[in-house]
Amino acid sequence: MDFQIPVKLERFGEDIKRNELRYHHRRVAVTKSFTFDAAHHLHLYEGKCKSLHGHTYHLSITVSGYVDEIGIVMDFGEIKRLFKEEIDARLDHRYLNEVLPNMNTSAENMIVWMWEQLDRRLEADGWKAKGHRLEELTLYETPTSRVTLKREWMTGDE
Ligand SMILES: Nc1nc2c(c(=O)[nH]1)N=C([C@H](O)[C@H](O)COP(=O)(O)OP(=O)(O)OP(=O)(O)O)CN2
Ligand SMILES: [Zn+2]
């Protein structure tokens, strides 16, 4: 039996092709946000945070790259996989002073450590060779306290 593509559907396909031509190779940033829970205390700190306590941390990861043939920069699911393997698997429901023994577990120190893990992983998985870059991380320690790290501050391009 002959199958005919309806004219309307054919036109839709043409529209998609035109869209590809227009947006392919545009650099766009994609962001995905996550939470994890952990306990910690601060050394060299006078105040309540020198005692053991916990947070539900919120982390937003932003990666930029070129829009590909199907119209995406990086699957949000892929960012989730990086987060799960590099951050969540190591920090969720852990005592941070134990799993990050060489640093004081301030939000500032933690976000630089997270940057190093994610950036190394983008390199190792071949994303950087395709032009992808880690652009920005934002880490909320509480709903009102957050730290931010941008690519230019890590590379000295500011
Ligand atoms: N610059 C930083 N200051 C503080 C950090 C830090 O990592 N970097 N950490 C802490 C404590 O670990 C803890 O996060 C308390 O933070 P804070 O915002 O003071 O939390 P509160 O819930 O008390 O905030 P309020 O909104 O004022 O109730 C301390 N400082
Ligand atoms: Zn804290």
UniProtKB/TrEMBL annotation:
<dbReference type="InterPro" id="IPR007115">
    <property type="entry name" value="6-PTP_synth/QueD"/>
</dbReference>
<protein>
    <recommendedName>
        <fullName>6-carboxy-5,6,7,8-tetrahydropterin synthase</fullName>
        <ecNumber>4.1.2.50</ecNumber>
    </recommendedName>
</protein>
<keyword id="KW-0479">Metal-binding</keyword>
<dbReference type="GO" id="GO:0003874">
    <property type="term" value="F:6-pyruvoyltetrahydropterin synthase activity"/>
</dbReference>
<dbReference type="InterPro" id="IPR038418">
    <property type="entry name" value="6-PTP_synth/QueD_sf"/>
</dbReference>
<keyword id="KW-0862">Zinc</keyword>
<dbReference type="GO" id="GO:0070497">
    <property type="term" value="F:6-carboxytetrahydropterin synthase activity"/>
</dbReference>
<comment type="pathway">
    <text>Purine metabolism; 7-cyano-7-deazaguanine biosynthesis.</text>
</comment>
<keyword id="KW-0456">Lyase</keyword>
<dbReference type="Pfam" id="PF01242">
    <property type="entry name" value="PTPS"/>
</dbReference>
<comment type="similarity">
    <text>Belongs to the PTPS family. QueD subfamily.</text>
</comment>
